[in-house]
Every structure is written in structure tokens, then in C-alpha cells.
Design brief:
The complex is a heterodimer of chains A (251) and B (68). Chain A has 251 residues and is an alpha/beta fold. Chain A has helices at residues 26-40, 58-61, 74-84, 96-102, 104-112, 153-156, 162-167, 183-201, 216-219, 223-237, 246-250, and strands at 4-7, 46-50, 65-68, 89-95, 118-123, 172-179, 206-212, 241-245. Chain A starts with a strand and ends with a helix. Helix content of chain B is 15%, strand content 22%. Classes of the chains: A alpha/beta (251), B alpha+beta (68). At the A-B interface, strand 1, helix 1, helix 8 and helix 10 of A face helix 1, helix 2 and strand 4 of B. Strand 1 (4-7) of chain A pairs antiparallel with strand 4 (63-67) of chain B, so a sheet runs across the interface.
């Protein structure tokens, strides 16, 4: 008797059409969030907040109600949604160009207030949707369309390490940085996303997960080479791991 | 013995599943799909164990169900 071991999560729409480039980790990240919503059984009570960038497409896939926020203001919008509907589960799905550059002020202040929301940040070291410009998380020496000679410290400074900043913020209950470069890493990422949602459900504070993702199109690599880059030079600068975990401490 | 349900018209030919499969069950199809890519297909001669590794790494949810 064969047994069903995996199926498309119910929190993904039935007529979904993943519109990301081939091999982009966004598809995996969206699916992991949907799987977690299914496992926690909160799909009917969830409100998502989409952002600007490739992550904006998330409202095409999630089988939940989604609000679209102006560029970088997802956590400000999520604050309003959560405070007017405190019984709902609210999450934001943002990219690094949205959360770490234009939205870093809203992000830090919402998390300092300890808003009971969950934030998923996709860090792919570039602005994917607009054609691969350099962003705040672009690595030193990385060639982008706005740093054709490679990113230089004298001109653009150092890459912004979001998880390291947010672990120091008192309102956060869970901060982790994960990768999606192998099946094992994907399972670990799912556990972290689940904890980030539990931080909200238990009322401990903001749950934050930074996902090191690939952008094979703008990195001009195959999906396999892009995953090797995540494992190599990206993980050296942005060290994966759990930075803060009040969820396990509270158990 | 396992089995996967593959939607070949959702595959975008990144072949991450092909690399993740421990028994090399998945291989490249010689026919293009509706999106214009050469999708993966199941080699019926090889033994699928239903580990669902391919489904976990697929960014396009082209592998819709896995049975074991």
C-alpha cells in the first residue's frame, strides 16, 4: 500500500504559476512558508504582506489574503494589520533590497517595538527584479550592473549584515540565517521558519529569518554554480546559524 | 518502491532535482514542454525510493506528489 509522503501545500493556490527564473530559490522559500502555514494550521487566519521586488509575486501563490505594501514599508503595514486584527497571524515576505536598504528604518523600529509578526527576508546580494544592480548586501568585489569593477569599500562601504543587527534589537524573539543549497539545508530552513511563526503565535516578539538565496540570472551562473556560491563566498560573509532563540527558551 | 507525480509543463529545467536524487531516477527529457524547456522525466528502469528529495529542492513545485 503506497503512502503519500509529500504533496503541494494547501497554502499554495491550486492554479499557481511560479513566475520566477529557472533555479531561483524564491520558489523554495515560498513553498516552505506555505508548508509551515499548513503544519501550524493557521492558513485561514493568516494575512501576508508583500513587498516590492521579486518577492512581490508571493501574492500570486499564497492561498491567503495578502496586502501589498509600498517599497520597504512591509513591516509598517504589517504593524497596522496586526494591531487592528490581533488574532490574525501576520507575516511579511521581503527581499534584501526592500528590507535592508529603503526599509531598514521601518524594519528596525517595528522589531524594536516587538510587533508580533513574522518576517522572511530573501538575501540574494542584488536587486533581482530591476536587473541586478548592487544593493546594501552586495559582497565586496561582486560585479553588478552598478558596480562593474566590483564593489569597493571606498565607494560603497561594506555589506549590511541584517541578522547581526536584528539580534541586538530587544523586540525580536527569533533571528536566524539559513541557506537553501541542499535538501538538508532546506529542512533546517523550514524548522527555522516554523520557529519564527511560533515566536509570533506565543506572543514573544518578532520572528525573523534571513534566507541566503540564489539569483542565477543576475549572477550569470547556472543554478548549481549559484548554490556553490551560497555555500562558499556568501556563507563566509553572511554566516548561517541561529542568532537568537527565545522560542526554545520559553518552552 | 516509490513514485512521483511530475507536472512536466511546470518544469523550468534547473535540474536541481536531478542532482538531488540519490538513485539518479530523473533524467533530461528530449521533448520540450509548454514553457519551451527540456524538462526532467522519470527513468522507469531506475528505482525510486520515494525520499522526496527532488520535491524538496524543486523551486517550481513541478513535483506535485511523492508516494512511498
Amino acid at each position: 500500500m503506497e503512502q503519500l509522503v509529500y504533496k503541494k501545500p494547501d497554502s499554495i493556490k491550486d492554479d499557481f504559476k511560479i513566475s520566477f527564473c529557472p533555479g531561483c530559490d524564491h520558489g523554495v522559500a515560498v513553498r516552505l512558508v506555505a508548508e509551515v502555514l499548513d503544519e501550524l494550521g493557521v492558513r485561514e487566519d493568516t494575512i501576508g504582506v508583500a513587498s516590492v521586488g521579486c518577492s512581490v509575486f508571493s501574492y500570486d501563490f499564497f492561498n491567503v489574503d495578502v496586502v501589498e505594501a509600498p517599497h520597504g514599508r512591509s513591516l509598517a503595514v504589517a504593524t497596522g494589520v496586526k494591531r487592528s486584527k490581533p488574532n490574525k497571524v501576520v507575516f511579511t515576505y521581503q527581499g534584501d533590497g526592500d528590507l535592508a536598504s529603503i526599509g531598514i528604518g521601518e524594519t528596525i523600529h517595528a522589531m524594536t517595538r516587538g510587533e508580533k509578526v513574522t518576517t522572511i527576508c530573501i538575501n540574494n546580494t542584488t536587486y533581482g527584479m530591476t536587473g541586478g544592480q548592487g544593493g546594501p548586501t552586495t559582497l565586496l568585489g561582486q560585479v553588478t550592473t552598478t558596480t562593474p569593477q566590483g564593489r569597493k569599500v571606498e565607494v560603497s562601504g561594506y555589506p549590511l549584515k541584517v541578522s547581526e543587527i536584528l539580534k541586538e534589537v530587544d523586540g525580536t524573539a527569533f533571528v536566524a540565517r539559513v541557506t537553501l543549497d541542499s535538501p538538508q539545508a532546506i529542512m533546517n530552513a523550514k524548522k527555522c521558519i516554523k520557529k519564527a511563526f511560533e515566536a509570533q503565535l506565543k506572543g514573544l516578539g518578532t520572528g525573523f529569518v534571513e534566507i541566503l538565496a540564489t539569483c542565477p540570472t543576475n549572477w550569470k551562473m547556472t543554478p548549481q554554480e549559484a548554490h556553490a556560491r551560497v555555500r562558499g563566498e556568501m556563507s563566509e560573509v553572511f554566516k548561517p546559524g541561529i542568532y537568537k532563540d527565545r522560542v526554545s527558551e520559553a518552552k | 518502491m516509490g513514485r512521483i507525480v511530475l507536472n512536466r509543463d511546470k518544469c523550468k529545467a534547473c535540474y536541481l532535482c536531478k542532482d538531488a536524487c540519490p538513485n539518479k531516477v530523473l533524467e533530461v527529457d528530449e521533448k520540450v514542454n509548454a514553457l519551451g524547456y527540456y524538462p526532467v522525466k522519470v527513468n522507469e528502469d531506475k528505482k525510486c525510493v520515494g525520499c522526496a528529495m527532488c520535491a524538496r529542492v524543486c523551486p517550481d513545485i513541478a513535483i506535485e506528489k511523492v508516494y512511498r
